Amino acid sequence: MSDRRISLYFNEKAPQRLDKFLSSSLPELSRSRCQVLIKDGCVSVDGVLARKAGLQLDKPAEVSVQIPELQPSRLEPEAIPLDIVFENSDLIVVNKPAGMVVHPAAGHASGTLVHAALAHTPELEGINGEARPGVVHRLDKNTSGLILLAKNDIAQRWLQEQFRARKVDKSYLALVDGKPPTPTGRIEAPIGRDTTQRKRMAVVPPNKGREAISEYHTLETFHSHTLLEMHPITGRTHQIRLHLSFIGCPVAGDTVYGHRKSTIDIQRHFLHAARLTIRLPGENQPRTFRAPLPPELERVLDQLRELA
Hints:
This protein is of the alpha+beta class. Helices cover about 20% and strands about 30% of the residues. The chain contains six helices and 20 strands. It has helices spanning about 20-25, 30-40, 115-120, 155-165, 240-245, 295-305, and strands at about 5-10, 15, 45, 50, 55, 60-65, 70, 85, 90-95, 130, 135, 145-150, 170-175, 185-190, 190-195, 200-205, 215-220, 225-230, 270-280, 285-290. Strands 8, 9, 11, 12, 13, 14, 17, 18, 19 and 20 form a ten-stranded mixed beta sheet that branches. Strands 1-6-3-4 form a four-stranded antiparallel beta sheet. The protein has a two-stranded antiparallel ribbon with strand order 2-5. The termini are far apart.
């Protein structure tokens, strides 16, 4: 595979930024990808190299774009078994196990979901010019359940826009310590970075954080615990765990935002992304995906039912 060269013609009445014109003319390229191409000297206007993404096109012009060939991922594929719930040419829906980190980061240079997906799907169209899957949303390391990975730029932008527009219906199962103040409720509490422990998030005043909304419904009650169905309306980091702790019933096993010593016999917190409804690229009707509770969580519920 070699570099591609594409010629476009700008002939709009209203002036337009160069990067915006490119991303609208070439839907397979994100705006950030177009900005990188401009910065790297891959775009010219009427034969003159363009160096600024904000260059205003205000008269008819020929825009030439050189798109470099897909670069191999800098990550090494790892043959880690994956529970694939659904897959097509645009995306993979995975039932992620607890204990697996989604994306490489400091302290997690290998063994992540992205490493496993690279081995599962070696032939990728790629994201931003690199042959790797795109993370659409995230789950905490010790949260199990459904997560989406995009195989190309168009799919990633489509799926991310569904999340931004709040058109995705997500349902989590959470076992909590104690009992919420009402069987069904809505929690509205802004979330921001914890000022004393930078690796943690916190419920903060409205002017210090971002809007965060969660809804819950009681499914089953036990002596000292409650099983809830959670619906996060927004998607902030650690949102469900923080919101449940905020109303006085933290997720069982959550030693960060809950009790330091777990109240259940398990080496993780009891939070599972059980259902996800979303409209896939090119489809008119939404699809619903489900992931059953992992055996270790089912075992906890069975033990609590025996004690009831």
